[in-house]
Design a protein that fits this description.
Blueprint lengths: L13 H8 L4 H7 L3 E4 L6 E5 L6 E5 L1 H6 L2 H16 L2 H4 L7 H13 L17 E3 L2 E2 L19 H19 L41 H25 L7 H11 L5 H12 L1 E7 L13 E15 L6 H14 L3 E8 L9 E3 L18 H10 L3 E5 L13 E6 L1 H5 L8 E4 L3
Parallel strand pairs: 1-3, 7-8, 7-10, 10-11, 11-12
Antiparallel strand pairs: 2-3, 4-5, 6-7, 8-9
Helix pairs in contact: 2-8, 6-7, 8-9
């Protein structure tokens, strides 16, 4: 019988560990399924890139490195790499050689300073495996080491500017550019000198070498795929109401990034046209193709009866209304628009039909809360062909509509609606 202890250890396979590692991180788990993962000894630790042949995002990882990490650090490395993708570092950054190092550090500071990354990466107090010159691998963190004076929660651009200032201050202090060898002194504001280095020898633990590489077409395809992948992952997290450790601020950032910019005017025009019904009336001026000279022909007039429900809670400002009604003026020949003011109830005595060229100002006639059931019941009762609601979406999900319904709101509220719906939500950028 062979001695089990003499068998070589099985090589580390990230795919086998991903489900377990991301079990408590639903958003990252959903995103992970949409990213290729490849074991490679070409990277000392890990890194992400856009594959130049497929335009797919790819996570490269060194199995020897990943196999030595603690499970919580393995999870941290995965989240770190995914954040490089989410924050568009992979597709949007290609620094010059002279700025590559501080660019790398700035990106890592922006990620590692997020609340959800706390305790998930090797640090001074809890380093990873031996990687560099006999020292354990550790990340760079705001508030630690040479970056002790830098606050957490800032953007890549902010950290890049701060690092440039540190480098400039180091050069002013010793009459150099901060790159010479020798015993340096601590830099101003907390930087620790190491051979004149204001960053104390720190650098990114992962590979950023292929960030921004590839031709323009490849990068554009990758960006569209990225937006779709992040959107699907966010939708899954929203549906399950479980984002894992992703902070509220980062959720907002993610939702803003995936918000598709559309021409709301085109969407409005399409909605009105698809709401049209065909009204047929008899006329002797038209030939009846089936029974000529026996029956009169038919005149077909396409018209839509559209209800415009306007939230009176203060969420719809004058600028938004002006832009909206300006567009309605162009559609008045193919539709009849009925304005329905509402809060928790419909102000039925204030309902009116809006005519083309009307200069009547839509005044705020109510000032209560918001309930979408009230205008929906009104529209269902009066048999409209379409229903448009102008609102901030800050109310519970309403009852079903008997006609097609569309929600029009601000960009911020369109990205983070209060309730989930399959109906169209469009942002008006007035």
């Amino acid at each position: 019988m062979s001695d089990e202890s003499t068998k070589p250890a099985a090589p580390f396979n990230l795919n086998m560990h991903t489900a377990r590692l991301l079990m408590r991180e639903p958003f990252f788990a959903a995103l992970s399924r949409r990213i290729d993962k490849t074991a490679s000894k070409s990277v000392p630790t890990a890194g992400v890139r856009v594959n130049p042949h497929t335009a797919q995002f790819e996570l490269l990882y060194n199995p020897d490195f990943m196999g030595q990490l603690k499970p919580e650090h393995q999870l941290g490395v995965l989240m770190h790499e995914f954040y490089h993708i989410i924050l568009e570092h992979v597709t949007g950054r290609k620094p010059t050689d002279g700025l590559r190092r501080i660019d790398n550090i700035a990106m890592d500071l922006a990620i590692n300073g997020l609340p959800e990354m706390k305790g998930k990466l090797p640090c001074e107090a809890d380093p990873g495996p031996i990687m560099y010159d006999g020292e354990g691998m550790k990340g760079v963190f705001p508030g630690e080491g040479p970056f002790a004076h830098l606050p957490a929660g800032k953007s890549y651009e902010w950290y890049l500017a701060a690092l440039k200032d540190m480098q400039d201050q180091q050069g002013e202090g010793d009459g150099s550019d901060g790159q010479q060898d020798g015993d340096g002194e601590p830099g101003e504001g907390g930087g620790q000198g190491q051979g004149g280095d204001p960053f104390g020898g720190a650098d990114s633990f992962d590979s950023h070498d292929e960030f921004g590489e590839g031709d323009a077409t490849t990068q554009e395809i990758a960006k569209e795929r990225l937006k779709e992948a992040v959107k699907k992952a966010a939708e899954e997290a929203e549906k399950s109401r479980n984002w894992g450790s992703v902070s509220h601020g980062m959720r907002s950032d993610i939702m803003d990034r995936i918000a598709t910019k559309v021409d709301w005017r085109k969407v409005l025009r399409y909605f009105v046209k698809t709401s049209q019904r065909a009204d047929k009336t008899s006329t002797p001026r038209r030939l009846n193709k089936r029974f000529p000279r026996i029956h009169a022909g038919k005149r077909v007039r396409r018209q839509a009866k559209i209800a415009i429900s306007i939230d009176q809670s203060g969420s719809v400002d004058d600028q938004m209304l002006a832009a909206f009604f300006s567009e309605l003026n162009k559609l008045a020949e193919i539709a009849e628009f009925t304005v329905v003011p509402f809060d928790t109830q419909v102000a039925e005595d204030k309902v009116y039909t809006w005519k083309k060229g009307a200069s009547r100002k839509t005044e705020r006639v109510m000032c209560g809360g918001t309930c979408f059931d009230a205008p929906t019941r009104y529209v269902n009762k009066h048999k409209f062909d379409g229903h448009i609601v102008l609102t901030d979406l800050c109310a519970p999900k309403p009852i079903a509509s008997k006609c097609q319904r569309m929600w029009m709101t601000t960009k911020a509220h369109a990205a983070r609606p209060y309730f989930q719906t399959n109906e169209r939500i469009v942002a008006i950028d007035a």
